[in-house]
Structures
1.
Amino acid sequence: MKVTALTFGELKKWITEELGMKPYGAQQLFTWIHLRRVTSFHQMTDISLSARNRLDQVSEITSLDTCDTITADDGTVKYSFKLDDDEVIESVLIPDPPRLTACISTQAGCRFGCTFCQTGRGGFRRDLATDEIIAQLYGLQNSTDDRISNVVFMGMGEPLDNFPALRDALSIISDDRGICIGARKITVSTVGIPGGIEKLMQLDGQYGLAVSLHSAVESTRRKLVPVSRILPLRELKRDLMDYVSRKGRRITLEYCLIAGINDSAEEADALAEFADDIECKINLLVYNPVEGVPYKRPNMETVNRFMHRLYPRCQAVTLRRSRGSDIAAACGQLGPAARGTSSN
């Protein structure tokens, strides 16, 4: 049993029903694993020796080996973690005082093939288990003396395509008996897949939602985000409005500007119209080059023209500075090509 993957309720049920331990042992065990982040049951000094020996026989605490770290000029650090099956995933630690943000992966590769994204180009290999998602965060936290304040599920993979593992990871990360990063400090990013946002809005926590839109023109979006063929813009917009209504939280529309593709005045007008009646903010980012992809970055004159075309029609528009692009750690760059294979 990989106890790192168990939510508090699951852990309590398991130790009482399967191991015969007292219910209060669940909080002790959960705190040791998720707050103190120990890697051995024998470090749990307030749990009896016999219970520790039993736990050691039938279960394990997941930790990931870091096989590489690269630091960018702006202080962003990319970590490569090796999994038990020798698969390698990447996570990113982004300092932006007073915030320290962990960017976490949910899959090895991605099945949705966004044409500007390195992870999608590398294809899908497998979902990550809950304990592998959690262990990334703890690996990042253990590498710094500063407390991680925010978590974004914007690494390799489509989080809502691996919903059961994501759901449990969200529960564990936001549990106040563990590392306790509040739901409002956690953001889930999605390209928009059928039923995905509906599942997320059914969870109790007020998790942030970011949508990789990249175009509000159907034909352009289908070129950039192929999965949009099965979730057209009008259906995506319905899901977003439902999320805002049910959660009472403003969502984020992520828009990667690519020269000659989605940076025209017509594209800006379509984006303004799409966002008009959604409680949202728009994050513009400039395309980060991916090896072997013919897309180019627009110049700053074009970027500024696009941005100002959105005003004052849109509630909030920001130009997001890409972090870690010099080490292939920015949006759309994660994956094996940075190591010699291919991914996000």
Note: The chain has eleven helices and twelve strands.
2.
Amino acid sequence: MSETVEATDAAQVTTDASPRRSLKELISRSEIDTRLLGMVAALAVIWIGFHAMSDGKFITSRNLWNLSVQSTSIAIMATGMVLIIVTRNIDLSVGSLLGFLGYTMALVQTDGLISVFGFNLTIDSLANGPWYTWLVALAVGLVLGAIIGGLQGFIVAYVGVPAFIVTLGGYLAWRGMIFRTGGKQGQTLAPLDDTFRYLGGAPDRSLGDTKSWIIAALACVGIVVSMALARQRRRRHDLAMRSLGAEVAFAVVGCGIVILGVWLIAIKYASPVSGDPVGIAYPVLILIGITLLMSYLAKRRRFGRYVYAYGGNPEAAELGGINTRKTITYTYVVMGMLCALSAAIQTARLNSATTNLGVQNELDVIAAAVIGGTSFSGGIGTIPGAVLGAVVMQSLRSGMSLLNIDSPSQDIVVGIVLVTAVAIDALLRQRRRSTVFAALAVGVALAAMVIQTGRP
């Protein structure tokens, strides 16, 4: 009799566990990034919550279009911050560097002058504002960003000064350099080149409906082709493959998201000037390109593999013959160039350069990377996750602005979200999965309380 009862209990346990096991097996076979999936779910909750609290003002084409443009600068820098944090380093200077590079690029456009470290070079051909002014300004910013990033990376990698100290010094120095640039004493530089302003995004300076649909079609083709090539590579190396039905389902869902996003955000939003569909903003297009490029660099190129190998185990990477010092230096070079690109976007959006450009951006960039799943312990982090983390950060700020939450309360909420994300990462690394939901619940409750008390 007892054996019959035990057999019945065992069968019941097996029956209860089978749905959970089958779900885990399904997710494992589909190769879905659970961290990224969790971020998407969190973003959906944030959007729906703010949409309800703002009486339907959040999930609108106008607000989502502005949200996409406002997220680009932080998201672009966050893709570089991923590589730096993966190597167990940090860069606290990105906000100040952005301000310095933006001011330098604006000086090239307004005065035709390059002024760096006491070296002044006047470009006479820029006096009359030729068509290539924006190209010269952008090139100067990218080259200078690469040099400064390389200098900081060299000190970290070859001199052995901790990254925290080096970039903290950069945080102070590059902000001060704004007041020493061109003898302007920090005065506002404006207006900027008309073509350069397209980099900032504006309703009257976007792709429009036709070009946006062409981009959407190309994106759908790219999704299908990339999935087909990935399947072909797996077959060539005799690796496990998803079923053809799953591949088709993923392709359909991916293309559906692209088409829905372009229609809802870019096409449905009518220009307040002309009344025509605004289309995709140029900064968003730049962000998409940077995300693809950085993902390719991180996953497909030797440099990216070296970065993750060093972050996972520095000693093993050294013994494996990886030039770790050069690898670390290059991560800062990439970060400097991304700061220059973000500086171009922010100055073009404002049509001016000011001394407070990029203030506190370093905190938002680090928070975006960490919220996106990048671990301070090294070796873990994804480019798409960082971009999604930047969108989450900007969604919080945008939603709280719609609710007229005061600025100090906004900073408190961002701080709570950052600490919660790091706590969840630490708990996952310690395999204390049972307490992850408790930490998440506490963080959400505290953030909700601050938002509620901060409302007028």
Note: Confidence is low (pLDDT under 50) at residues 13-17.
3.
Amino acid sequence: MEAVWYTETGDADKVLVFSTMEVPPLGPGEVLVRVRASGINPSDVKTRAGARGPLKFPKVIPHSDGAGVVEAVGEGVDTGRIGERVWIWNGAWARPFGTCAQYIVLPAGQAAPLPDGTSFEAGACLGIPASTAYYGVYADGPVDGQTVLVTGGAGAVGHYAIQFAKLGGARVIATVSGPEKAAHASAAGADLVINYRQADVVAAITDFTGGAGVNRVVEVEFGGNLPVTNQVLAPGAVIATYGSMAVPEPVLPFYPMMFNGVTLRMYLVYLLSGRDRTRVVDGLNGLLESGRVSHAIAETYALPETAAAHRAVESGRVMGNVVVTIP
């Protein structure tokens, strides 16, 4: 099979190899998926660059997200799954061979049915961006009638979170860092978009909510945003956060948050429990089947162009998901 891999960390152009290798063997409880699209996330490029520490395997095929078709099944797996369109989660999490190849072998449960109306390219965006957004919005119950704040509303996760919260009956506020990103968040359905570089975020949210504050926050930068976020939380609000890169060791205003009944939920989508994973997969597929979810696929690259795709993700200039297609 054709594949992209690396045996050492470093710059994409220096360490990524495009060549051929044997298809991994198929074991009991596993499926062989012919990959049609491989999604690239920031975690993939950070791992390849060495930001996540030394390699855990002698050879690594990157990318945890992908979509394709089941071509074979191992012992104990229903043969009726052969020919099924699927999307993949945790393809490269604690595993050497991810989705950046013509084939991937993985546990059958990590290949979820892909609704017929959803493209392979869109399916390659579900494992991390869409799953992170869905869990952040719904982990603490329904949002109907609530006000949800999505920070980083133009990001891959934010774009989905805005939609999921709106589909759940919430009013949505999104924060962004520029006019182009504001347009992107508005197109996703946000009721109020705030450019935090130009506007007073606290004043804007206070005015929009009539002083009531927000009930839930899907937070991309917990530490950096906390001084502002803590001023706009409604009593009993939930902060669901999946990142804090700018301020990795934030100072927590414990007593003000405690007396406001705030819940802080920190999560990593790779580590969802079996029960939560089932809820996310079923919830996402339900929304996809409704035809009401849009996908922000900014750029696509062919498999031999994977290094260029990694550079695009690292540049920070891309607004949306970057996908490698494998026809």
Note: The first strand starts at residue 2 and ends at 5.
4.
Amino acid sequence: MSDDEDEIAILECQFPGISSSAFAQAREKVLASGQSVLQSENGCIYEVFPDGRQVLVKRIEPPTVVELGCKITIR
């Protein structure tokens, strides 16, 4: 691999952790401002309030497990 490809591979490996941290910070900021957030968990969407209360909004299909290299069709 060239140096540029190595650098891109390193950045791609860092992306999941960095994006997870950014979403967690944004979620906490919204809750701290007194607003609620929507969260999916175990095939359900919940509205989560700053006091920790969760209200079921809707049942959805559970997440699709995708293996590396697998192709899926989105309906």
Note: Helices lie at 3-32.
